[in-house]
Design a protein that fits this description.
seven-stranded mixed sheet, 16 helices, Rossmann fold, 3 domains, alpha/beta, eight-stranded mixed sheet, globular, GMP Synthetase, Chain A, domain 3
Length: about 500
């Protein structure tokens, strides 16, 4: 039964059989071959089963990027369990809320995050396993031959079964557990390998984004699935990333827009030193948040015109569209045509399809869709419309079948009865030479209903006053789209995936 199923650890096991001595993972001075990784996965699974872990039970991983991350995900999965990956920035209250929501039995925690484990708040946790010496001793007590993946299981693991539980970032409300199946993730890997061209056995990937985030895990683990090698960075260092891409044989890298913004905030001399030095790089990928057009142009100028892919998607829908390199400058603010096996509809508020050039809410249908929200049937039903899923984004389609994200439905501002899309204003502000990042929100206004307020992060050693920014906007936007207020801010609040938390901006006085 197992050999016919699309399971997360399936590619790893095939690669371990084919190239057991090849390096699968690198993290600092640590390295793991495919054979070593497979054995450790088997040990995790066997040890969990010995603790009474059963199919469908939940475990939590609370850790920054580390070399143990892939084996924990695959090991819990092979034991028949579902793993919830939590942001390493989670507080004790946030950890408890997720653990209690999914009724987790086991938590794996990095020493750096041990302070966020409050046993008094954790109602169902039976075992807390701290990575490092305790974890290694725990592993060595296992017999890898006792893994269900080796000896089989009385309750076989199916590709439609959940493998992970991703808690939403909370950009719009109470976080929910999103259930992702093995089939969804594995088919996504196959489509990624086809689309991006940097996930073969010969490829070397640089893993930067947090693996606690769905995209960060997928873009790194895809390499291992197909027998390639991934180097995992424990934390993001803009200067180190630029240096590595220029001097080491990485063929692919995935980053979120915040990473690119930090890179181009480096000292000009640092950037100049490594310009044009990406000797092996074939693919640069961006996802998880909108990539401003001004930032796209910097990426293309710095690394070349034939590398950048911007992918649009959501945890619920998986990858939905991808804009390939040739269109990055040809189609500004575009996120591309549908990703492989995806169908897309744009619907108005009455649920009717809109035409080319018109704005509608984007719904998608594909094999990558989530299984639903954990223990939330009503919210699952509300998120789907006859098998179609929406992440709440408004978009339009051109006559070539390419899509453009206009804004999030909940971020749209209604001022004086007119719909205003903040993303358009943010794109304009980010072309100002003094502006590094911008976020625009609506705030209550007695006369207009809502007025626009812009939060601005300035470039290093640059300045721009409100009058200058207002004049800049008036030259490029209709008057009703020009913010009434401009406020400087040191940095924009973001979640682990790089999305701007506008609810936190709205809470500012």
């Amino acid at each position: 039964m197992r050999s016919t199923q699309l399971l997360l650890s399936g590619g790893l096991r095939v690669s371990a059989a084919r190239t057991p001595g090849k390096t699968a993972l690198i993290c600092g001075a640590q390295r793991r071959t495919f054979a070593e990784l497979r054995e450790r996965v088997d040990r995790v699974a066997a040890r969990l089963v010995a603790l009474g872990f059963a199919k469908g039970d939940r475990a939590i991983v609370l850790a920054p990027n580390c070399i143990d991350y892939p084996e924990l995900i695959c090991g819990v999965s092979d034991a028949g369990g579902i793993v919830a990956t939590l942001s390493p920035r989670s507080t004790a209250g946030e950890v408890a809320a997720a653990a209690n929501d999914c009724r987790a039995r086991v938590v794996f925690v990095h020493p750096a995050n041990a302070g966020a484990i409050d046993r008094a708040q954790l109602r169902t946790i039976e075992h807390v396993i701290v990575l490092g010496e305790d974890y290694e001793a725990w592993l060595q007590a296992a017999d890898p031959a006792e893994s269900p993946a080796v000896i089989g299981s009385a309750v076989p693991l199916l590709e439609t079964d959940p493998f992970t539980l991703v808690y939403t970032s909370g950009t719009t409300g109470q976080p929910k557990g999103i259930i992702i199946s093995h089939r969804s993730r594995v088919l996504t890997f196959h489509a990624m390998a086809m689309e991006y061209g940097c996930y073969g056995p010969q490829d070397l990937q640089l893993g930067i984004a947090p693996m606690a985030h769905g995209a960060g895990f997928a873009f790194a683990m895809c390499s291992v699935y197909f027998g390639g090698t991934v180097e995992i960075l424990p934390k993001f260092d803009a200067g180190l990333v630029v240096q590595k891409l220029a001097t080491e044989p990485f063929t692919g890298v995935f980053m979120v827009p915040t990473h690119y913004s930090s890179i181009f905030a480096l000292e000009p001399a640092v950037l100049a030193r490594h310009r044009g030095g990406a000797r092996a790089l074939r693919t640069i990928m961006s996802n998880a948040a909108a990539l401003p057009q001004a930032l796209k142009e910097k990426i293309v100028d710095y690394w070349g015109a034939d590398l950048l892919h911007e992918t649009y998607g959501s945890t619920e829908a998986g990858i939905v569209t991808n804009l390939r390199p040739r269109f990055q400058l040809e189609k500004p603010r575009c996120v591309g045509p549908p990703f492989a096996l995806n169908e897309i509809r744009l619907l108005d508020e009455a649920g009717r399809d809109v035409g080319d050039g018109e704005v509608g809410e984007l719904h998608s249908r594909s094999p990558y869709l989530f299984n639903g929200y954990f223990d939330r049937p009503a919210e699952t039903a509300a998120a789907m419309r006859d098998g179609w899923v929406s992440a709440g984004d408004l978009a339009r389609r051109d006559t070539d079948g390419h899509y453009y994200i206009v804004d999030r439905r909940k971020d749209m501002v209604v001022s004086g009865g007119i719909n205003i899309y903040p993303r358009e204003i943010e794109e304009v502000l980010q072309t100002h030479p003094a502006v590094r990042e911008a976020a625009v929100i609506g705030v209550p206004d007695e006369h207009w209903g809502e007025r626009l307020r812009a939060y601005i992060v300035l470039e290093r050693e640059r300045s721009a006053g409100a009058a200058d920014l207002e004049a800049y906007c008036r030259e490029r936007l209709a008057g009703y789209k020009v913010p009434k207020e401009f406020r400087d801010i040191a940095e924009l609040p973001r979640n682990v995936g790089g999305k701007i938390l506008k609810k936190e901006l709205r809470a500012l006085p």
